[in-house]
């Protein structure tokens, strides 16, 4: 059994899927950066840099 080189999606569907994946990646990246900033701020407050 061999698989054909045909994609089950049309070019428009593939482009839409890629666009959604890119949007999800951006959201996850922003969430990750936000968590890093949050953890950094919590650490700064706990360590007490300002006093």
Describe the protein.
With 51 residues, the chain is mainly alpha-helical. Helix content is 73%, strand content 0%. The chain contains one helix and no strands. The chain is rod-shaped and about 65 Å long. The chain starts with 10 loop residues before the first helix and ends with a helix. The mean pLDDT is 88.
Element string (H = helix, E = strand): H
Number of DSSP E strands: 0
Q: What is the gyration radius calculated from CA atoms?
A: 21 Å
**Low-pLDDT residue spans:** none
Structural class: mainly alpha
- The percentage helix is over 70%
| Main sheet attributes: strand count, strand direction, barrel closure | none
- Beta-strand fraction estimate: under 5%
User: CA-to-CA gap between the ends?
Assistant: 71 Å
Task: Outline the fold blueprint.
Layout: H1 11-47
List the keywords.
single chain; 51 residues; 0% strand; mainly alpha
In short:
The chain has 51 residues and is mainly alpha-helical. The protein is 73% helix and 0% strand.
